[in-house]
Amino acid sequence: MEFLPEGFRTRETVGIHLRNKVILSCLPPRLCLLVFLRHSGCIFSREAVHDLREISETCLSFPPILFFFPGNLEETRNFFEGTWEDASVVSDTNVEFYQDLGLSNAGLLQLAGPEVLVATARATLKGFFYGIPGRNSLRMPGAYLVVQDRIVWEHSYRHIGDHPDWKNLPGVRLIPGAEFGPDALPA
Which one, out of 30, 91, 119, 161, has a CA that is 20 to 30 A from the CA of 180? Predict the structure, then answer.
């Protein structure tokens, strides 16, 4: 089991809807999903945020999500405005947290290979389109399931459009919220 790098414990950050200025203090004492997005024009970042919002709103047991965005605070707010206003997001202009976890720049096949074209078709069929590239447009995305400072699972992206199966994260059993009334709790 790996641990989050020291920067998550010590580096102060800014963002939206953060409970503290240090990442580890923002994380709950249970499973939490850290999602490292690409730039503001990325079709796959838009798709991921949409899919995760939909799952988290319909499934009571989905872990809380902390997004990381490679832009300044204004760019971060603009990206999430109208998409998920209540999301907790770290604005990582200098991509320091990305670098701490080894998320580097993508190569040519990771940016425009055949698998990316298939992923583009998938996202387009969902109604998403490319936008104007933002800061750090070559940076790879990342997804990590953590319990406080421990990484219990990570998705190694093969290319920029390679999303994990969000509904089948290890250790996460989805309980649909629509099946239960406000007074009923699952057994």
Answer: 30
